[in-house]
Amino acid sequence: MLKVSAFHALRSVSLESIGISFALLTNNVYSVSTKRCRLRGLQSRTLDVIRLFSSNQHNPKVPKVPTWESVAEEQLPPPTKIPVDLVDKLERLALVDFRTKQGLECLEKAIRFADQLHVVDTSGVEPMDSVLEDRALYLRDDTVTEGDCAEELLKLSKNTVEEYFVAPPGNIPLPKREERAAILRHSEF
Amino acid sequence: MYHRDPQQLVGVVGLEIHAQISSNTKLFSGSSVQFLAPPNSLVSFFDASLPGTLPVLNRRCVEAAVMTGLALNCTINRRSLFDRKHYFYADLPAGYQITQQRRPVAVDGMLTYSVLGGKKRNQVIRKNVHIKQIQLEQDSGKSLHDDVHSQTLIDLNRAGVGLMELVMEPDMSCGEEAAAAVRELQLILQALGTCQGNMSEGQLRVDANVSVHKPGEPLGIRTEVKNINSIRYLARAIDFEIQRQTDVVQRGGTVQNETRAYDSKSGETVAMRDKEGLQDYRFMPEPNLPPLIVFEDNASLPAGIDACQAVVVQTIKEGLPELPSIKRDRLVQLYGILPEHSFTLVNEDGLMEYFEEVMKSTKREPRKVIGWVTNELLGLLKQQELSVSQSPVVPAALAELLELQEAGHISSSVSKQVFQEMWRSPGRTAAQIIREQDLGLVSDAAELHRICQKVVDSHPEEVCAIRSGNKKVLNKLMGLVQKETKGRADPVLVREILEEKTS
C-alpha cells in the first residue's frame, strides 16, 4: 500500500519535499536508498522525470506479476547441437564471430528459447512474414527524383579513384579463427 | 539434332536470362537508368545502401513484368513476395539482393520458337520451351578490375536497376535451339518495349546450364556457362560445352558441377576461379516490403483505390502490342508468302518494314518480291555485315527496278546485274544504269529475227532434233541467242520466234 501511494505522490512532487524515505522496489534500476534522496536536487528531479514517462496509473493491460510459465523440457524438441563446421560456415556467410565457447553457448541458449515456439499449434494457419504484410505496397511513378550526388557519396569512402569506389580485387577470404582472435583481441565485446 | 543411337550422349540445356527492364528509373529508387553516364552519378542514397533508406517499388517495373508474363503465356500471381538473397561482393552495397525467390510475379509459361530445319534448312520447325518463372530483382553495380594496382573500381550506376529474371526449364538440346529461343525472346521483349534486348550492352544477359546424358537416363551433372555476349557466342559456347562434357564422360571421367566462363577468342569455356563451393544465400523475406498485389480486372479493385496504385492485369492484356508470331502469321495471310519467308522477315531488324515499303510502290506479286528481299538484298547485307537500315538500295529504288523488269524493259538475269550495280553506286537509279550500260531488253522484232535466224542456220543438227520431237534442245538454241544478245533478248519473244522457225 505504501508503495502505491508513493508512486502516486511522485507524479509531480520531488522526493525531497515528501520527506519520506523509502525504497522503490520495482527493479534494481529504480531502487533508491534514503541517502540518495538527499543528494542534489538534480538527481531526484531526474528520477522524477523518469517516473513521469511511465504510466500514470498501473496499466490494466500489463499484468502486475509476471505471468509466463517456462515450457517443460519434455514439450520441446531435442536441443540443437551446432557442429563446428556449421559455425565456421555461418561465420563466413554472415561475417559474425562467435569467438569463444561462451558465444556458442549463447547461441544455443537463444535457439532453445526460440524452440518454445514449437509448442504452438499452427496447423491450418497461413504463415506470416511480418505484422505489416496486410498493408498496401506503395507503387512509385517512374520519374527521376534522385541521384546526381556522386561527390557526396564518394566523400563517404576512404579510398576512391576518379569517381569510382575502390575495393580489393575480389572477396578477401575470412581470416582463420586464430588470426581473427589476434585481430580482435582489443575489441571490447 | 536427332540422335538415333540410344547410347549416344545428348545435351541438355536450360537458360537463365536476366532482362534489364526498360524504365526511366530503378526498381526501388528514383535514380535514373542510362547506359553511359559518369561513374556513380546515377546513384541515390538507397542504391548506395546508406543506413536509413528504404525500397520503394516502381510501378512501371511491375507492369513490365506482368506484360512479359502475359506475352509468354504465364500465370500471373495475384500476390507475390520479395526476398533477400545474401552474398558479399563489392558491387552489392547492401550485402543482399532484393529478389522474388519464393513467390515471383509470373510462373508457368511457354516460349514458342522456330528453327529452320529439314534438308534444305527451309522448313520451319516449331519448338517450345517451358518458362518456370519470371521474377523481379535488383541488378548489381559494375566492377572494373584493375590488375595493375590490384584493386577493383566500383560504379554503382547499375546497382538497383530493375531486372526480370526468366528461368527456363532444360527443354533444349543444343546451341542452335538456345540461340533461336533467345532470338525469339529478344523479338518479343522488343515488341513489348519492356526490354531493349541488346546483349552487347548487357540489357539481356544469358547464362546457360549445360549437362549431358543418355536419353532416358537421369540428367547429368550440370555446369553453368557465363560471360556470353551475343546470340552467336551463345550457340558456340553451348555446343563447345556439350562436346567437352561428352569427351569427359566418354573418357570415363566425371563432369564437375562448376561455373565456367566463355572465352570468345578461343571459342572455349574455362573454369572460373574464385568459386567458394556451393553458395548458401540464406534467403529471407524482405521485411521492408509487403506483398505485391496485382488485380485481375477493374471490377476486382477495392473501393476508393487510386488508379496509379493499381496494376490491373486485364488492362495490360488488352494493351499488348502485336507479338512476333502473330506478325509472322499476318504476313503469311496478307501477302501469301511462305512461313519460312515471313520467319526471315521478322527475324531481321527492319526487313519486314523494308518489304512492306517495297510492296507499296510496286504492283508485282508479293511472292515475286519476297525472293529479292530475302535473297538478293539480305545476301548482300550479310556479306558486308550491314543492317537493313544501312542498305545502299532503298525500298523505292528496288521497287523501281522490279517495275522495270515487270514492264519488260529488262530480263531477269539483267535485273540481278543492275541490282549489283545499284548496290555499288547508291544514288544511281535502275533506269539510269540500264540506259548507260545499254542493258535494255532487245524487243526489236526484226533484230531478234535476224539473230535467231543466224543461230538456226548455224545449228542444223539441233533444228533437226527439235523437228523430230526433242523440244528440250530449243533451250540450247535460246541460250545461244541470249549469248549473242548479251542476255538482253526478251526470252518470251525469242522462244516464240525460235519455235516458229523450227516448226
TrEMBL record, chain A:
It is an enzyme of class 6 (ligase). Its EC number is 6.3.5.-. It catalyses: L-glutamyl-tRNA(Gln) + L-glutamine + ATP + H2O = L-glutaminyl-tRNA(Gln) + L-glutamate + ADP + phosphate + H(+). It is found in: Mitochondrion. GO terms for molecular function: ATP binding; glutaminyl-tRNA synthase (glutamine-hydrolyzing) activity. It holds the Pfam family GatC. Keywords: ATP-binding, Ligase, Mitochondrion, Nucleotide-binding, Protein biosynthesis. One of its GO terms (biological process) is glutaminyl-tRNAGln biosynthesis via transamidation. GO terms for cellular component: glutamyl-tRNA(Gln) amidotransferase complex; mitochondrion. Its main location: mitochondrion. Belongs to the GatC family. Allows the formation of correctly charged Gln-tRNA(Gln) through the transamidation of misacylated Glu-tRNA(Gln) in the mitochondria. The reaction takes place in the presence of glutamine and ATP through an activated gamma-phospho-Glu-tRNA(Gln). Subunit of the heterotrimeric GatCAB amidotransferase (AdT) complex, composed of A (QRSL1), B (GATB) and C (GATC) subunits. This is Glutamyl-tRNA(Gln) amidotransferase subunit C, mitochondrial. It comes from Cyprinodon variegatus.
Automatic annotation (TrEMBL), chain B:
One of its GO terms (molecular function) is asparaginyl-tRNA synthase (glutamine-hydrolyzing) activity. Residues 353-502 form the Asn/Gln amidotransferase domain. The keyword Ligase applies. Its main location: mitochondrion. Keywords: ATP-binding, Ligase, Mitochondrion, Nucleotide-binding, Protein biosynthesis. It is an enzyme of class 6 (ligase). It catalyses: L-glutamyl-tRNA(Gln) + L-glutamine + ATP + H2O = L-glutaminyl-tRNA(Gln) + L-glutamate + ADP + phosphate + H(+); L-aspartyl-tRNA(Asn) + L-glutamine + ATP + H2O = L-asparaginyl-tRNA(Asn) + L-glutamate + ADP + phosphate + 2 H(+). It comes from the Eukaryota. InterPro entries: Asn/Gln-tRNA_amidoTrfase_suB/E, Asn/Gln-tRNA_Trfase_suB/E_cat, Asn/Gln_amidotransferase, Asn/Gln_tRNA_amidoTrase-B-like, GatB, GatB_C_1, GatB_Yqey_C_2, Gln_synth/guanido_kin_cat_dom. GO terms for biological process: glutaminyl-tRNAGln biosynthesis via transamidation; mitochondrial translation. Its EC number is 6.3.5.-. GO terms for cellular component: glutamyl-tRNA(Gln) amidotransferase complex; mitochondrion. It is found in: Mitochondrion. Belongs to the GatB/GatE family. GatB subfamily. NCBIfam families: gatB, PRK05477.1-2, PRK05477.1-4. Subunit of the heterotrimeric GatCAB amidotransferase (AdT) complex, composed of A (QRSL1), B (GATB) and C (GATC) subunits. PANTHER family: GLUTAMYL-TRNA GLN AMIDOTRANSFERASE SUBUNIT B MITOCHONDRIAL AND PROKARYOTIC PET112-RELATED (PTHR11659), GLUTAMYL-TRNA(GLN) AMIDOTRANSFERASE SUBUNIT B, MITOCHONDRIAL (PTHR11659:SF0). Allows the formation of correctly charged Asn-tRNA(Asn) or Gln-tRNA(Gln) through the transamidation of misacylated Asp-tRNA(Asn) or Glu-tRNA(Gln) in organisms which lack either or both of asparaginyl-tRNA or glutaminyl-tRNA synthetases. The reaction takes place in the presence of glutamine and ATP through an activated phospho-Asp-tRNA(Asn) or phospho-Glu-tRNA(Gln). This is Glutamyl-tRNA(Gln) amidotransferase subunit B, mitochondrial.
